[in-house]
Amino acid sequence: MSGAWAAEMAGQLLGTPEGAVLDQVRVLELTRTIGGAYTAKLFADAGAEVIKVEPPGGDRLRSWSASGSPAGGDSGDGAFFQFLNAGKRSTVVNLDDPVGRERFRSLAATADLVIEDLGAGVVESMGLGHAELAEANQSLVMLSISPWGRGGPWDQRPANEFTLQSWVGSTHSRGIPDEMPLGVGGQLGDFLVAANAGALGLAALMAARRDGTPGEHVDVSAYEAMTTSFVVYAHLYAAYASEARTGATRSIEIPSVEPAKDGWVGFCTITGQQFKDFCVVIDDPEMAEDQRLSSGDGRMDHRDEVWRRIARFTQAHTVDDIVDKATMLRVPVAPIGDGSRVAQIDHFAERGVYVENPGGFTQPRVPYQLTARPVRPVPPAPALEKPTMNCEGRMAIRFEPRAQCRRTPSRRCRWPGSGFATWPRSGPARWHRACFPHWVPTSSRWSPFSAPTGCASPAGSHATTCGSGARLPTGPTPASAR
Amino acid sequence: MTLDLSSDDGLALVKRLVAMSDIVIENYSPRVVENFGLDWDEVHRLNPDAIMVRMPAFGLTGPWRDRTGFAMTIEQASGLAFLTGDPEGRPLVPRGMCDQLGGMHAVFATLLAVEHRAQTGEAQLVEVPLIEAGLNAAAEQVIEWTAYGQLLQRQGNRSPYAAPQGIYAATGEDRWVVISVDDDGQWPALATLIGRPEWTTWASRAERHAHHDEIDAAISGWVAQRDREAAVEELLAAGVPAAPVITGRESIDNPQLAARGHQQWMDHVVVGAVPYPSFPGRFNGQYHRLRYPAPTLGEHNEEILRDVLGLDDAEIARLAEAQVIGTRPAFWG
After folding, report:
1. Is A172 helix (H, G, I), strand (E, B) or coil?
2. Using omega within 30 degrees of 0 as the cis cutoff, is the peptide bond preceding B164 cis?
3. What phi and psi values does residue A414 have, to the nearest 5 degrees?
């Protein structure tokens, strides 16, 4: 063995400095929600090869814009889609068609993780549940995200982020008494569910990459994620606190978002001391001594008076001046960010938090930094596979079921000298592409856009006609999440 | 456990614990652990295998570095508050979700660091500022602004993601029903249910947004004649996402949570048996169970000092006497 080869192997097996942590991991993404797409984005950002499996016509988020700006089709993919799918790869598979489902099975046989959010029971009804897919790939992890989780009397109930906010008791708590309750805007719940799902899925993936550990089906419930984050976990709270406290009517924080001379400014007074310091900030020390106003409930009861006294100061000063003064007194404070302002904040500019997407817009970078791993520029999101180029069965050509890979490792897979024993905690070497030369190396990995013009059928596949006979896949999109 | 890190004994003991640990996690503002000399360089010197996860509100660098920030501060700065509330009124904080949002991103990043260490043998510093998870959850606002020049606004209970969407008063006092049509396929059923089958032609969300006032009036009239629970049952049966506006207390009696077994009852040393939430997902049908209920302050002082660090009883008693360890907050006297 030459030293150069050993060094190369070491670089590959130990992860090159340029490599990302999950660069040996292949993920199939079968999602239709923002939360599902963001879950898979977590894995793509960590270096996994994420293959987005889209229905004919493409992910509906390709034509999504929250403002109704032109997106999709001739306008190009929507910017939010490009954010959620940067660095992923994409292929079109019609899961309503047996041939498409067979293609999906072939792909799943080569994958480490399948992420899906089609709804409880949907992939199972297509014969693509974890049990079926694991037959050909026992280490496969499936991460399912559904509103209620699988099983239980409600798992087919229609629900979405907004109705789940209410089911967990959050909506009731927000707003002015005697007025309409108010839900949380945006899709914060989807992101929370995604962050939970990502962590649980990664844990299961790492467990399955240990030798001999079968992959698990991780069944995430959005309701359960939100019941522990959108409210103080009411069940536990009820065990500690009295009936009266847990049934309290709705309120909003005071002080919280207050009007300044030139915009909104936000405070947060969790402790009594912080409220007293806040009173100093707004030049109203009498308020700090007023027993009626010492609690959040008391301030809510006298909200018009308190808001008037706060505004007397805040409306006479700029956001910057108020933030400086409150910071000096160590009262938690922030300017109110919005789409036009937040990326301009000097703190984020200095830290490089906002970066350019190749789609020509600004986005936040990955929200964590691993200091031993370099941060990469945002890669582009995949274009939708052109239906005219589509060729049923083609995808299966370049991939072999993992079970077969495992029986026939390449001799180059041996680590000179110490063997695999240097990786006691997990088994990246077992999965390394050097062990499986028919897994295409990164530089020449399969791409849906570089398929051969003639489409040879792999043995046992259900490939249909190719070339001039290529047909446009038809059929409805996968059943909606319920 | 408790340790007074401002004492020489306390600092020495925590350094011994760092030397024995796989992961060190802290989420004070950055100056706090640094003032104790427990920055990354020192942690790494004490234990080259230890991963350190730091979760300041705003980051380890930058002009806001040493500011205090809670979840609600994050919600205010990130834009999440800007999208919550009535269009004419002040923005409202969502109220606290950013804590768990940041925490679960930190779990993900920590697992990546564990995997990196397994691959390379190298431990590293992981930085997960609370604000940056919030900025990703609010990313759509900056993206819409920089891609299209559009400033997303709060819309009360309406939303760009669903139409119609709203909260409607049912019979009785302060009883409300949430309805949110996020899929075009749900609309014909709702239009028919509220007695407006001719409106099913508003097949797209954009069309229904254009007629949102009319639709809201019709839904309001329909819900106003019904009991909250009855209305929700009818809507769900028709395939329309709906919910009663219930309190946290009312949310406890949820048959779905009970059937899935999400709650884990454990005996707490003070309050007895209480239901703890499991992680929000099952692994092959099973939850990973918590091993312990929440500890009381310093509950395991002796166990850790004696069994992990090998201190003898006399030494532990001396630490208690010197108030290096304790079981009640020092400022309570």
Report:
1. helix
2. yes
3. -70, 135
Secondary structure element (H or E) that encloses residue A267, with its range: strand A263-267
Q: How far apart are CA A384 and CA A52, in angstroms?
A: 10
B321: Cα separation from own chain's centroid: 39
Dihedral angle over CA of A432, A433, A439, A442, nearest 10: 120
Q: Is pLDDT above 50 for A140?
A: yes
Q: CA-to-CA distance for A268 and A253, rounded, in angstroms?
A: 8
- CA-closest candidate to residue A172, choices B67, B238, B246, B3: B246
Helix (H) or strand (E) holding B179: strand B176-180
Quote the mean pLDDT of chain B: 95
Q: Which of B136, B154, B236 sits opposite A191 (nearest CB)?
A: B136
Which of A233 and A324 is assigned the larger pLDDT?
Answer: A324
Q: Does the pLDDT at position B45 exceed 90?
A: yes
Paired strand residues for A174: A251
User: Cα distance from B313 to chain A (closest Cα, Å)?
Assistant: 34
Residues B204, A260: Cα–Cα separation, whole Å: 40
What percent of chain A has a predicted confidence (pLDDT) above 90?
Answer: 67
User: What is the structure's pLDDT at A114?
Assistant: 98
Distance from CA of A463 to the nearest CA of B (A): 33
Say if CB A28 and CB A114 are below 8 A apart: yes
Determine, for residues A347 and B106 on separate chains, whether the beta-carbon distance falls below 8 Å.
no
B130: its two tokens: 């609370």
Q: Are A361 and B146 in contact (CB under 8 A)?
A: yes
Q: What is the largest CA-CA distance in chain A?
A: 84
| Cβ B5 vs Cβ B11: under 8 Å | yes
**CA dist., res. B26 & res. A353, Å (int):** 21
* Helices and strands per DSSP (H, E), number in chain B: 15, 9
**Encoded amino acid at A105, one letter:** R
Does residue A21 contact residue A46 with C-beta atoms inside 8 Å?
yes
Per residue in B167-197, pLDDT (tens digit) is: 999 999 999 999 999 999 999 999 999 999 9
CA–CA separation, B19 vs B212, rounded Å? 62
Q: pLDDT category, A243, cuts 50, 70, 90?
A: low
Residue B242 phi, psi dihedral angles, 5° rounding: -155, 160
Q: What are phi and psi of B321, to 5 degrees?
A: -60, -40
CA distances from B143 to A90, A304, B30 (A): 22, 36, 30
Tell me how far apart the alpha carbons of residues A461 and A401 are, in angstroms, rounded to a whole number: 13
The yes-or-no verdict on residue A2 having pLDDT over 70 is no
Beta bridge partners of A113: A27, A141
What is the residue whose two structure tokens read 């020509």? A360
Question: What confidence score (pLDDT) does residue B332 get?
Answer: 52
Window 90-119 of B: residues touching A by CB (8 A cutoff) are: 90-97, 99-102, 104-109, 111-119
**pLDDT confidence of residue A482:** 32
Q: Which helix (H) or strand (E) holds A145?
A: strand A141-146
SS3 A69: coil
The sign of the CA dihedral A341, A342, A345, A348 is negative
Q: Which residue has the tokens 């992860």?
A: A15
Nearest CA in chain B to A179: B174
pLDDT in tens, B248-301: 888 888 999 999 999 999 998 888 888 899 999 999 999 999 999 999 999 999
> What tens digit of pLDDT does each residue of A37-65 get?
999 999 999 999 999 999 999 999 999 99
pLDDT of A156 over the 50 cut: yes
- State chain A's mean pLDDT as an integer: 80
Could you tell me if the ipTM is greater than 0.90?
yes
**B140 contacts chain A (CB < 8 A):** yes
DSSP character for B289? P
Question: Which neighbouring-strand residues pair with A381?
Answer: none
